[in-house]
Amino acid sequence: GKPSLAPFGTTIFAEMTALATEHGAVNLGQGFPDTDGPRAMLDAAKAAIDGGRNQYPPGPGVPELLDAIAVHQSRFYGLTVDPRSEVLVTVGATEAIAATSLALCEPGDEVVTFEPYYDSYAASIALAGAVRRTSVLRFPDFAVDEESLRAAFSSRTRMVLLNTPHNPTGKVFTRAELDLICSLAREFDAWVVTDEVYEHLVFDGAAHVPVATLPEMWDRTLTISSSGKTFSATGWKVGWVSGPAAAVAAVRAVKQFLTFVGSGPFQPAVAVALGLDNSVYAGLSSSLEAKRDLLVAGLQSAGLEVSVPGGTYFVVADAAPLGAVDALAFCRELPARAGVVGVPVSVFHDDVDAARTLVRFAFCKKDEVLREAVERLSRL
Ligand code: PMP
Ligand code: GLN
Description:
Elements: H1 12-23, E1 26-27, H2 39-50, H3 63-77, E2 87-91, H4 92-104, E3 110-115, H5 119-127, E4 131-136, H6 146-152, E5 157-163, H7 175-187, E6 191-195, E7 221-226, H8 227-230, E8 238-242, H9 245-258, H10 266-274, H11 278-301, E9 305-307, E10 314-318, H12 327-338, E11 340-341, E12 343-344, E13 358-362, H13 367-378
Parallel strand pairs: 1-11, 3-4, 3-5, 5-6, 6-7
Antiparallel strand pairs: 2-8, 7-8, 9-10, 10-13, 12-13
Helix pairs in contact: 1-12, 2-10, 3-10, 4-5, 4-9, 11-13
The structure holds 4'-deoxy-4'-aminopyridoxal-5'-phosphate and glutamine.
């Protein structure tokens, strides 16, 4: 029968941003930057609009963006990707996740993923009529537990839905963890769909390792990314999928009936952004790394135990010292009580006990905003 989406009500991001507005609170909930991305990219969008690129773009994406994505995969990762058959532009990574799940899974197929998981994973798996099988990442190190991961696989496993760097934990999967996941995917003949939207937001001099570059993985991997995070333009919703041509064609077939196409004038602008110098990419990650340090130190000085993230926009802290018993209830009260918004990690879990008192705070904000949030939390 039709999968029930009834359990998926208002997303936590919409709920928490509404509370932030209502209470005039500092919003460290929803992950979006409060400064704009590269000037050249913004100007290119204006030029595209003024240049009349306001009608339906081609189904797979505009040619200059497909080319720029292929060049990006080669430039940063040494991957050779055919821009015409192995790349598809989507309406953000969100559409890519939904379209990939729908393309690869039949009802009853199983999808292995880690929890906490990004909220759209559970919904997309349900839309496809598939069943999620999860392995828990536990605070504070969020290490992969081999036994529970292996137990999540079965003869019905169709795909692994992976996310590195990982939202909401900020974890960057280690090479050994990725090798384990890939070897299980090969053993159970599963696809790996890897959400790498934070690929350029990795800290401490570490390098992002795309799953598609690992031995024997290209043929069974679909890689998802988005300009939202890399170029601080979350509202533009320009994402993409790349991988073997037949699988990309299957995703494209689904995408036609979800949105057909999207983000017309923003596509050529993202093509310009992808071609910018390394210093632009490095500048964003080093600025975020400094913000991570600022927020981590502030949360620690407010008495919280923190898991220091290796990437992303997010840090997870244990709010028990601030009186949290149930993170969801705590986060619903926090805007009125302290004028700060965070997101309860428990909403990204099936096993909510794994994250009872854990709160995710976003640090992709101006320094003064982060300082104000910390000061308010310190007063609690
Ligand atoms: N995947 C992850 C892990 C994310 O954090 C996000 C956005 N926060 C998305 C996908 C969605 O990306 P987009 O906005 O490009 O749809
Ligand atoms: N991905 C962003 C986050 O994790 C929010 C995206 C959304 O609001 N759906 O905070």
